[in-house]
Amino acid sequence: MNVQPPTPFPRNGPAQRQVAFNRIELGAIMGIYGRMVAAGEWRDYGMSFLKDVAVFSVFRRTAEHPLYRIEKRPALRLRQGQYSVIGMDGQILKRGQDLKTVLRVLERKLIRAVD
Q1: Which of 4, 78, 94, 100 has the smallest C-beta neighbourhood within 10 Å, fewest atoms?
Q2: Does the pLDDT at position 114 exceed 60?
Q3: DSSP letters along 38-87, please?
């Protein structure tokens, strides 16, 4: 019988980091999400945290493509801004440094004219 010791985890090199939304950012996103759910516009969401981007996707129904994607890309914070709202067709609707100002483009969809 041949017994081998377990393979140790590699310790050399930096640990891979993920980009994520912090508590304040999630509070702002969930605030607009809650208002849109109450209005009946949105029904579901999904979050992805990758090495270079964090994505909050908004769905009208669970099994379809996202209506909007709210992305955080820290690599772009010194250029166009690290936050962006992207539509269903891939068009960037708003980009900037401040998340609350970027999310205003979604609040305009909530305002409707009253007869």
Answers
A1: 4
A2: no
A3: HTTS--EEEEEE-SS-EEEEEESSTTS--SEEEEE-GGGTTTT-SEEEE-
